[in-house]
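Here comes a specimen:
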Amino acid sequence: MLEISRRNLIRGVAATPLLATVPGSPAAATPLKTASAPTAPESVTLGWLEGKPGANVGSTWGVPWPKGAVPADSPFALTAADGTAVPVQSWPIGYWPDGSLKWSAHALAADAPLSDSYVLSRSTGAAPSAAVTVSESPGSVTVHTGMISVVVGRRGSAVVRSIARGGTEIARNLELVSLRQTTAGDDDERRTSRERLTSSITSVKIEQRGPVRAVVRIAGTHKRRGRSWLPFIVRLYFYAGAEHVRMVHTFLFDSEGQREFIAGLGVRVGVPMRDELHDRHVRLSGDGDGLLREAVRGITGLRRDPGAAIRTAQVAGTRLPDPATWDQRVTTRLPLIPAWGDYTLAQLSSEGYTIRKRTKAGHGWIDVDSGQRSSGFGYLGGVSGGLGFGMRDFWQKNPVQLDIRGADTAEASATIWLWSPEAGPMDTRFYHDGLGQDTYPEQIEGLNITYEDYEPGFGTPYGIARTTELSFFALAATPSAPDLAALARTVTTPPQIVAPPAHLAATRAFGGLFSPVDRSTPGRAKVEDRLDFLFTYYRSQVESRHWYGFWNYGDVMHTPDVDRHVWRYDVGGYAWDNSELSPDLWLWFAYLRSGRADIFRLAEAMTRHTGEVDVYHLGQWAGLGTRHGVQHWADSAKQQRISTAVYRRIFYFLTADERVGELMHELVDSDRTFLALDPLRKIRTEPYTPDPHALSIGLGTDWSGLAAAWLTEWERRGPKAAAAERKLLATMRTIGRMPNGFVTGSGLYDIDTSEFAVAAKTVSVSHLSAMFGQVEICAELIDLVDLPEFEAAWLQYCRLFNATREQQAAECGTHFGNLILKQGHSRLTAYAYTRIGDATLAARAWQEFVATDGYTDASPWVTTRMQGPEVLNPVDDAAWVDTNTTALYGLAAIQNLALLPNV
C-alpha cells in the first residue's frame, strides 16, 4: 500500500531552476536549467568493483558531479586509504549546459599502490614518478611507460613494431591477420582454399598523451594482392609504470556474408627467443588458475636424471645451471631430447578446450590435455624475458584459439585467434530461403506466424562489428605460476574502480530515476527480492542455455517455448533479443543502485554486443540497428530504437571507454537514415516518399534514439556538439508546440532546420513509443533544459497513457485505443507525480505497477529444476519469465522505488 504525506509530496522534484544560456548557443533564446546554490562533496570515496585486485594494471573510471557544482577546469587529487598521495590523471567527459562539470574521468597508474579504497578530492594531485611519454616521428609513434617502450607503426602491416623492456626486445611485428575463403565448404570433402590477409595501416591518432594514461588509435584494413576487407580500429592503452599494452580490437564486417567467409581472425606477434632450449618456456592457462607449464626442451621425466634441483628449477621457470654441471648421462644426450616448438590451445565451444603440441611443421601433433574453459592466457619466452598474452572473454566468445609456433627457433610467434581456423568458416549466410515472402502482404503474414519481419536482401551482416580486448605483457623473466595466474585473472576481469551508488544517485546525472537499494519496509524488501530473483535467473540462463559465442555473447533470448522448455532460439522474432524493450537499461540501472559486480559485468557484455553486433556501422543502414531475430542481423526492421545511444551512455560515463564513445558519436547524423529507409514502409496506407524537408519520424522510438545521440554529443562537447544541440533543442521546441505533443505519434522533420512541422491535433499512441529509452532521455532533458512546453507535452503523455479513456479523450479529442504494457508505463505516471505533485498520480502509479499486467503477486516467483530426458541439459526453468516483461518490470520497479514515497 502506498501512503502519501505532505512531507513527501515533492520527493524527487528538481530544485527551482535559474535561467541561463549556453554562450554561443544557436538556440540562445532557450533557457537552460541550473541548480540553485549547488554544492558538491569535497571528496568521494571510491572502491574496486570486485575488491582489491591481485595485480595492478591500471584503471580508468568516471565520476559524476551535481549540476552547477564543480567548475569545468577543477583539478583532482587521489589518495589511498592510508592517506598516501596517489598520482591520477583527470579529464572532463561530460558537461552540464551551464558549463559546469558533469562527468570527470580518471586514470590510475599501473605502479600506483594498491589500496582497498581511494579518496578522490577536488584539489591538485600528485604527479607520477615515471610518467607515460609519447614521441612522434614521420614513420612511428613511441610510447614509454617507465617500464617498457613500444613503437607503433604509422604505415605497413605492423601495428606494433616492437616492445622492449630494459633495452631488451620482448616482442616485434605485431600484426592483425585474417583468413579468407570464398566457399562455405558445405560438402563433405570441403574443396576450398584460404588466403591470408594482414593489417595495412591507414591512420594513426594519439588520443591521449599521459602523464598517467596514453591512448593511440590505429585504423586500417586487412589486405593482400589488391583485396582489402575487414576494416579495423585498434586502440592501444598505456599506463604509467605498466609492463603491458592493452589492446581494444574492433573489426567491421564489410562483406554480405554469402560468397566470402572469415576462416580465421587474429592478432599475431613475433617473440625473439634468446635462451637455450631448456631455458625456454611455454605457459597456457586452463580452467580457473590452471596452467600448463612446460619447457621447449624438457629435462624432467627422462630415463636419466639431471638432478632434483635442476628439474625443480626448470618447472619453476628459472635459469638452469650450466649443463656441464649436470649428470653427464643427460648433458651428452641433450640433442636427442625433442624440442617442442609448436603448441595450440583450441576452445571451439564454451564447454571444452584441447591442447596439443608438435616438434615442428610437417610432423604429427601430440595430444596434451583438455578441459572445460580456458581463461585465454599464454606465455612464450625464457629466463631472459618473454611475452604474456591474453584475450578477455576467451571461452565466452568461442571459437577461439591460442597458437605458439617456432618456440625452438630464433623467433617464435604467438597468435590469439578471435575466430579459430579450426572451427571452419564463419557462416553469416541468411538462415532460410525467404519462404516465398516476396511482397509486403506476404511478409506481414510471415510476421503474424513467426514474428519475423522478413524482406529479401535485408538479412545481411554487412556493416556490423565486434570488439575484443587483448593484453600483451613484456616480462623480464618467466614468471612464477602464482604470478602468471594473477596476470591471467587481470585479463579475464580487468580491475575497475567505481563510485558508490549513493554518490551516483545524489548527482542526478541520469535524471534522478534511481535510488540506492533499500529494504527498509516490507513493500520495498519484496520488490528488491524480486529484482534479485530476475537478475539471478537471467545470469543462470546465460550459463545453462550457453548464450555464448563470437556473435552471440552479451545478448539474451526474447521469449521461452513452454512446450520444448527452451527459449525460442529458432522462431523468428522470438529468438535473440537485440535490446527489445531495453534490457540494457534494466541491467545498468540495477547496477547504478546496487554497485554489484555481477550486474556490471553482464551489462558490460550486453553493451559491447548490442552496440557493435546489432548495429550497422558501414553501408546504407549505418546508424540503424536490427530488430530481434534468429540471427542478430536477420530481421528487416532496421531502426533507431536498437542503435540508440541511451543503451551505451551509462557504460561510457562509468568507464570513459573510447570505443563506446565513438559508437555514440557515429549516431549524431543518423537523422539522415530516414532518407535511406522508411521504418513504416510495410504498413503505410498513404503514398510516402522520404523528403529531406518532410521526413516522417516517430516521436517515440525514433526521436528518443536521435535525442540520445544529440544529448550525448552535446554534453561531451564532441566535434558536432553545436549541430547536436541545435537539433535537440529545435525538435524539443517543436514537439512542445504540437497541440497533442507526444500523443501526436509522429511528425514531419526538416533536416535543414531540425524542426518538426507543427501537426494538427491528432492521436496516435503506441505501447512501444516510450519503452526504448524515452523515459530516461526525457527525464534528463527536463532536468537540463527549461522548455515548459516540452515538459508539458511529456507530462501529458506520462499522465494519460495509463489514464481512463474518458480522461484521454477529454484532453486529446479521442482516446488512445487498446494499450498494453501498463506495468512498464507505471513509471511514467510516477514521474508525472514528481513533477506535478498530485498525490493521486502516486497512488495510481503504484497500483499500475502491482496490479495490472506484467509480473504481479500472482506470478510464481520460483524456478523449476529440470533434467533429462525432458531437457538437453539440466536447467532451472521459469517458463513464465520473458525478457520484455522482465526489462519493463525491472525498470518500473527501480524507478518507482526512487520516485514514489512511502512504498
About this structure: Residues 576 and 844 are 34 Å apart (CA to CA). The domain at 32-121 is CATH 2.60.40 (Immunoglobulin-like). The chain has four domains: 32-121, 134-183+192-269, 272-428+464-492, 500-676+702-725+766-899. The longest helix spans residues 522-544.
